[in-house]
Specification:
Shape: elongated
Radius of gyration: 17 Å
Helix content: over 70%
Number of helices: 5
Order of helices and strands: HHHHH
Number of strands: 0
Strand content: under 5%
Structural class: mainly alpha
Number of domains: 1
Largest sheet: none
């Protein structure tokens, strides 16, 4: 006997898969930053946007927020809040990358590793990746906030 899956079931499965992928992305991105906040602080400094007094605080706080929101999204705990934070992060990442791209400033992303020459990404590919992640995050947020 074959089970019928409805359109709603397929949408729910897709929503869960996107949540897991987005959550794992943020968990994976937080790992090396938590282990070595000093290197992450150098990456943040390299963006040449943030005031010096904020760099160390950002280098410590951002990775833990990425970790908690990623776990929250996967476990489906405080999903709306996690998606709001993730989407705000992605918008911020997009703005920082675009700003540096526009002014011709070369920078290390620090997204998933530090200083690995084999994983050099262009700013354009970073923008495309983050826009795709934001699209996924916004679509999940909209589905979570239906009235």
């Amino acid at each position: 006997m074959r089970l019928k899956t409805t359109k709603i079931d397929k949408l729910k499965i897709t929503e869960i898969l996107i949540s897991i992928i987005l959550g794992l992305t943020f968990i994976f991105a937080s790992y090396h930053k938590i282990i070595d906040p000093a290197k992450f602080a150098k990456v943040i400094y390299g963006y040449a946007i943030f005031p010096d007094f904020a760099i160390n605080v950002l280098a410590i706080i951002i990775p833990f927020i990425e970790l908690v929101t990623g776990i929250s999204l996967i476990l489906r705990i405080y999903t709306k809040s996690a998606l709001s934070i993730i989407n705000m992060f992605l918008i911020s990442f997009i703005l920082v990358i675009a700003f540096n791209l526009l002014r011709g400033h070369e920078f290390e992303c620090g997204c998933f590793s530090f200083g690995n020459d084999n994983q050099v990404s262009s700013a354009v590919s970073l923008l495309i990746r983050d826009i795709l992640l934001l699209t996924a995050g916004v679509s999940l947020w909209v589905r979570q906030n239906k009235f």
